[in-house]
Amino acid sequence: MHYAIPSVRKGVAMFHGLVAAAALLMGLGAEDAGAGHEVQLAPRAVGPVAPPDLSGPTPEEREAKQRGYFTDTLLTTQDGRPARFYTDVLKGRVVLIHFIFTNCTDACPAMVQKMMAARAELGSEFAKDMRYVSISIDPQRDTPAELRKFAHRMGAVDPEWVFLTGSQENVDLIVKKLGAYTGEVENHSTVMIAGNVKADRWRKLSPTVSPKGIAQHLRSLEKTEILSAQPVPAIPATATRKD
User: Fold this and answer.
1) Residue 196: domain span
2) 31 belongs to a structural domain
3) Which of 6, 89, 189, 193 could pair with 97 in a Cys bridge, judged by C-beta atoms 3.0 to 4.6 Å apart?
4) Number of domains forming the structure of the chain
């Protein structure tokens, strides 16, 4: 299922707001109006009327909004390299994000193994524009060296598999942006977040999804085009969360 992290769907939101307003004038509910009922507003003075601007944001505007939401908060990779979250980690990618801590003995290793199986399912497709992002929610203990040892222990070594840590403040900010903050290491979210950053299309994946299911979601997102300026029906976001 798709959902949009609140960053770059202004044009679509404005369209649905206009439809809802028209529906109220006609005594219709927003749901009815969105279902295709014709809506006629009260007569207005005759004269030239400027067409609505459905051009949508430019790629530069879209990128600026994405960067503004996700931020270029500085984190550190398992190799000790600084990484700006949006520009260095997300930009232009299809990503699968999840949350770990290296002392975890059950859920985290199980999720990593599932992601590795999905990686094998994808084969050479993974190397194109896809990336795995594992964010430590215990950054005080999970130094880059600890993350690197964890990755090697799990066999999760790939140029496009990034493990991230950083200051507690910076990590908390990013985890909150991703809607996964709990404040408790042991009860962290095991939901995975898959997205096509360029197209601003996002999904939350249940931790029970199969490796084949993960691969299918990433393939589908990889083929998603950037949202056009034409109205797109809103799709309710349903997210499964298991702490």
Assistant:
1) 59-222
2) yes
3) 193
4) 2
Alpha helices in 141-238 (DSSP H): 144-154, 168-177, 211-222
Q: Out of 12-16, 135-139, 190-194, which region has the weakest mean confidence (pLDDT)?
A: 12-16
Side-chain-side CA neighbours of residue 176 (13 Å)? 9
Angle of helix 168-177 versus helix 59-70 axis, rounded to 10? 130
48: Cβ–Cβ under 8 A, 6 or more apart, which residues?
Answer: none
- Which strands sit side by side in the sheet containing 192-196, from one edge to the other? 82-84, 74-77, 161-165, 130-136, 94-100, 192-196, 201-205
Percent of the chain at pLDDT > 70 equals 69
User: Can you give the CATH number for the domain in which 69 is found?
Assistant: 3.40.30.10
Q: Is the pLDDT of residue 225 over 80?
A: no
Whole-model pTM: value is: 0.71
91 with 36, same domain: the answer is: no
- Which amino acid type is present at position 95? V
Question: Sorting pLDDT into bands at 50, 70 and 90, what band is 58?
Answer: confident
8 Å CB contact between 170 and 75 = yes
- Considering the domain architecture, whether residues 114 and 84 belong to the same structural domain is answered as yes
Q: Does 185 lie in the same domain as 72? A: yes
pLDDT at 1: 45
DSSP state of 37: -
- Cα(193)–Cα(187) distance, integer angstroms: 17
| CB atoms closer than 10 angstroms to residue 65 | 17
- Residue 180, SS3 per DSSP: coil
CA dihedral 161, 163, 169, 170 (to 10 degrees): -30
149 found inside a domain: yes
State whether 15 and 112 are in the same domain.
no
